[in-house]
Amino acid sequence: MKALTWQGKRSLAVEEVPDPRIEFATDAIVKITSTAICGSDLHLYELLGPFLDRGDILGHEPMGVVVEVGSDVTDLAIGDRVVVPFNISCGHCFMCRRGLQSQCETTQVREYGSGAALFGYTKLYGQVPGGQAEYLRVPHADYNHIRVGRDLPDDRYLFLSDILPTAWQGVEYADVPEGGTLAVMGLGPVGQFVARIGVHRGFRVLAVDPVPERRAMAERHGVLAYDLTDDVVAELRDLTEGRGADSVVDAVGLEAHGNPGIKAAQTAIGLLPDVVSQPLMERVGIDRLAALHASIDLVRRGGTVSLSGVYAGDADIMPMKTMFDKQIGMRMGQCNVKRWIDDILPLVEDSSDPLGVMDLTTHRVSLDRAPEMYETFQKKADGCIKVVLEP
Ligand SMILES: NC(=O)c1ccc[n+]([C@@H]2O[C@H](COP(=O)([O-])OP(=O)(O)OC[C@H]3O[C@@H](n4cnc5c(N)ncnc54)[C@H](O)[C@@H]3O)[C@@H](O)[C@H]2O)c1
Ligand SMILES: [Zn+2]
Ligand SMILES: [Zn+2]
């Protein structure tokens, strides 16, 4: 089959690779019809090379049709149309039973001290072949699927794989009081949905992003969007009676604009041999914290900061005095995809499209063009906001 493979920093190739096969009786094979590129994939493209091997298949936002099931799979049949959640979880362990599927104890990657295995996401998360490919092997297939109807187009359902539940969890964890103000840092695909979910729930939503077309897209959905300037935090504070927002979601993560020194360090570490760079990246702070620190600055006293954006350094410098004194609540983590599906599925099937899932994808192209689209998405060129690939 054809698959998108990692070859090196900012270097990808669509290659012919062996078709995936059923390896365990609980596996299924899905023929992929749509598969998106995520902001998280950009971290692999740019930064996390030390944890990837040449030839690793990327991708964790796929959907398609079941073409084969293992002998122990009882809840899926050939021909079922499914979205595949990006975390691989068992559905019955201590964590899964508590709705913490991203911490699944059956698939945890203990060698690296990580939570549940993820599709297409480095050795830290199990080095499981990903879904930017013609076919995908889905482990624990009875649980790791979201079965969907046949009538609506893929775009309605595809984002259930990751960014919609991620945004939903981001808003849940932000604990916004009724009628309160939610600030959103970043209007990439995740921030778009965070902001729209906030509007859908009746909050006043203020968002920040340096890219004009991302702000314009958010404004189409009732969001008040602001450029990333030196005074934006002060400007938003003024809009909230000088107190700051009740809740802030950071939908940016570790590659934020605004930390040139750390960017240079990230690049330098990435150029070292894997044996040297891996422990450095695991144990030292490598994150660009501009968006996180701005979120802490912007939230009101006693408010909540919720991190949807990914962070990876274990020695990041945090403003503990401010966090303690302002009595900030904080929640974060990989999304527990399956936990939120019952809440979101009716919204994506609603004919009025309340979260605007049909207004996110700017580029729908064949899988062959994936390497070029990673570059376009990373550079935010050509108005690119979300890319969907068709194998
Ligand atoms: N928690 C999860 O389970 C989960 C799931 C999916 C994605 N993510 C993470 O969410 C983050 C966003 O993903 P995305 O797909 O939207 O990617 P993206 O890279 O397209 O979005 C990031 C946005 O932040 C903006 N930005 C950069 N620096 C900023 C700053 N200092 N202040 C405000 N905005 C700034 C960028 O212009 C961009 O629009 C990434 O870190 C990604 O890894 C997490
Ligand atoms: Zn993703
Ligand atoms: Zn589990």
Tell me what you see in this structure.
This protein is an alpha/beta fold. The protein has two domains: 2-147 and 361-390, Medium-chain alcohol dehydrogenases, catalytic domain (Quinone Oxidoreductase, Chain A, domain 1); 166-332, Rossmann fold (3-Layer(aba) Sandwich), CATH 3.40.50.720. It has helices at residues 39-46, 94-97, 154-157, 163-174, 189-200, 212-219, 232-238, 260-270, 274-283, 290-298, 320-325, 337-349, 370-379, and strands spanning 2-8, 11-16, 28-37, 62-69, 81-83, 135-138, 146-147, 181-185, 204-208, 224-226, 245-250, 299-307, 329-332, 363-366, 387-390. Strands 3, 4, 5, 6, 7, 14 and 15 form a seven-stranded mixed β-sheet that branches. A six-stranded parallel β-sheet has the order 10-9-8-11-12-13, with helices on both faces. Strands 1-2 form a two-stranded antiparallel sheet. The longest helix has 13 residues, at 337-349. The protein is globular. The structure holds nicotinamide-adenine-dinucleotide and zinc ion (ZN) (2 copies). One zinc ion is lined by residues 89-90, 93, 95-96, 104-106. Residues 38-40, 42-43, 162-163, 166, 185-191, 208-211, 214, 228, 251-253, 256-258, 290-291, 308-310, 334-335 line the site of nicotinamide-adenine-dinucleotide (NAD).
